[in-house]
Amino acid sequence: MASSSSDSDGDSSSSFRRNRSNPRKVKSQVSALSRKLKSQEVYKVKEMVMVMVVFIQEDYKVKGIDMVVVLAFRLTLGNSTLVFSQVRDKSLASKVHALFVSKENVVGDQCMSKSRYDCNALSMSKVNCNDDQSMEKKQIGIVGAGISGLIACKYMLSKVTEDFPTQHQVFDYIQSYAQHFDLLKHIRFNTKVVGIEYDQGLSDEEVRSWSSWNGNAGQPFHDDRKWKVSVDNTLNNSTEVYKVDFVILCIGRFSDVPNIPEFPPKKGPEAFHGKVIHSMDYAAMDYESAANFVKGKLVTVVGLQKSALDIAMECTAANNGLRNPCTVLYKNEHWNVPDYLPWGLPLAFLYMNRFSELLVHKPGEGFLLNLLATMLSPLRWGFSKFVESDIKKKHRLAKYGMVPKHSFLEEISSCLISTVPEKFYDSVEEGNIILKKSQSFSFCEEGILVDGETTPLKTDLVILATGFRGDKKLKDIFVSQTFQDYIAGSPSETLPLYREMIHPRIPQLAVIGFSESISNVFSSEMRVRWLGELLDGAFKVPSIKEMENDTVE
Predict the structure, then answer these.
(1) Which pTM was predicted?
(2) What would be one Pfam family of this protein (predicted)?
C-alpha cells in the first residue's frame, strides 16, 4: 500500500539512535515525522518502529517492547490514520498512543478512547478531550486494497442498521449497474412505445392454425417476419418505427395503469367533496411534498398490501398524533410478515431451497415426485403453521382481529407477500392508525360509506392503494386485436406463459418480469439466461399444444 521513503529521510532511524540521551530532541523528531505523515508522505514501517522504540526507551524508561506497528493513511475519508495492533502491554500501549497525541504533535489535542471494535488495537481518534459525549469520528487503518481490503473499507465508511434499502439506495444501485455494464448507450431515453405490430403478411386465421410456435418448428426467429415497434419521441413529438426480429417486453405490471374500483352511479369519487388519488400519484411525489399533502388531513387508505401499509405510516408520521388518525380500509387480512426470520429461523430454510421443491406438486412431474409431494404434505402444513404462529405473536393479530382465514402457504405461493413497516401495529395500538374491514364501500359528500354502516366515515383525503391493471397494460401495447384477445382471454387471472415468459400463440416475443416470484431480481435473471439460450439456438420450444397444456397444469 505504500512506497518507501525518500533518500533524504533514509537515516532517520540512525538519528534517533544518536539522540537517545536527549528525549526532547527525539520528541521533536517524532513531531516532524508526524507532520510529514499528515502531509501524506509515506515512511517505512521499520523506521516508525525505531522511532517508537527509541522514544519509549529513553523518555519513559520502558524496556522489552512487544508490539507490531502498522502505518496506514488516506484510507478512510482521506484522513491520516495510525493503528497500533497486537499491543500486549496496555500501559505501554497508552504511552505509545500518548506519543502521537501530545500537544506538540501536529495532530492536535486528542485523548485516548476505547475502540468500538472488539480487538486488541488502538487507533488515532478525532475526539475533543473536553467533551464527555461519545466520540464524533474514529479513524481506521486498513492495510491492503485487495478484495478483503476493499470490503473492509466499504463497511468502515458506512453504517447500515436497516434490514432493507431505501428507494434512493435501490435507484442508485440500478443506475450504477447500468453504468458498470455500459448499458446506457443502448437505451433510447425520452421515448414511449405506443404499440407493437407483428409484420407477418399472414391472416389471423393462418396464425391461429399454427401447430408450432412462430409457425417455424419452435424456432425463435423467422426470416420473413418481424415486429414493428412504434415509438413516440417526447422531445420533438415525432413517431419512429423500428423493425426487430424479436421483442422482449419488460414493462412490469405494477405501474402506469391503476386499478380503480367500480362504484354504482353517483356513489363514486364524484360524490365526494374531498380528494381521491391512487397510490401511484402519491408515490410520484417527493417525500416533502407527500408529507405536506397529507398533513392536517383525515386520510383513509384503501388496501392492506405493501403500498397501503407504507402510506398509512407516512400519514401517521406527517400528522404526528391522535388528532388526525389514518384509517386503513381493507377487504381481507393478509400474512404480511414482520421480517423473514420466523422464530429466528430464516424463511429461506423453509421455502427457498431444493428440499422445499419436493413439498409441492409441479407440472409434468412423474409418479415418484407426485407421491413424494403427497407424502410430505403434513410437513408442508407444519411449515405454514410454524410461520403463522410467529407472525401472530409478533403482530398480536388476534388482538386486532387481523388473523387471515387462509394459510401462510397460500400467501407465499401467490408471491405477493409483503413486509409490515416497523412499528405499524404500535401505531394501531396507540390509535394513530385505525383498521376497518369492509367488503365494499362507496362515496358520499362527507367521506366514505362502509358496507353495513349508516354513519359515514368522515375523511378529507382517500388514497386508493388498490394495485394496478398489469393485464390491461400488457394487452394495450399490441396493435393486433387477435393478440389482445390472447392476453385478455386468459381463463384465470394468471397469464398463461410457458416458462413464465413465452405466450404459446404470440410468436417471436417474450415477457420478462410479469410473473411474480419471492425475489423478482433473481427470477428475472434466470429467465433472461434461459431466453438467451433459446435465441442462440441451443434448443427449441415445444409445440403450441404442449406449451398450453404445461401452463394449464
Answers:
(1) 0.69
(2) FMO-like
